[in-house]
Amino acid sequence: MDKLITKEEAIANCIKRFTVNNTDRLHLEAAFALIYKSGYRDGMKFVEDLETQQRLKKTEQILERWKNEI
């Protein structure tokens, strides 16, 4: 059974996973998009403004494309 973790731990884990040797903003956005899609939306203000929601949507499209290319 998976151990429950806090939002902060989830963010840290995703950022580590996506930024091993690369701090590219796209990878950070992808990490946040994964958290957003994984049900960690509550209390995360970065998904509340329209501009950020549009960036997340674009990031999700990029993630979908990458997933389809693998």
Task: Assess the beta-strand content as a share of residues.
Answer: under 5%
User: What ranges have pLDDT less than 50 throughout 5 or more consecutive residues?
Assistant: 40-47
SSE succession: HHH
Shape: globular
Helix content: 55-70%
Mean pLDDT: 64
Q: What's the gyration radius in Å?
A: 12 Å
- CA distance, first residue to last residue: 28 Å
Per DSSP E runs of 2 or more residues, the count of β-strands stands at: 0
Q: What is the domain total for the residues?
A: 1
**Contiguous helical run count:** 3
Class from helix and strand fractions = mainly alpha
Largest sheet, strands/sense/barrel:
none
Task: Give a quick summary of the entry.
By secondary structure, the chain is mostly helical.
Please characterize this protein's 3D structure.
The protein has 70 residues and is mostly helical. It has one domain (7-69). It has 3 helices and no strands. The chain has helices at residues 7-18, 25-37, 50-69. Helix 1 crosses helix 2 (25-37) and helix 2 packs across helix 3. The radius of gyration is 12 Å and the shape is globular. Mean pLDDT is 64; it is low at 40-47.
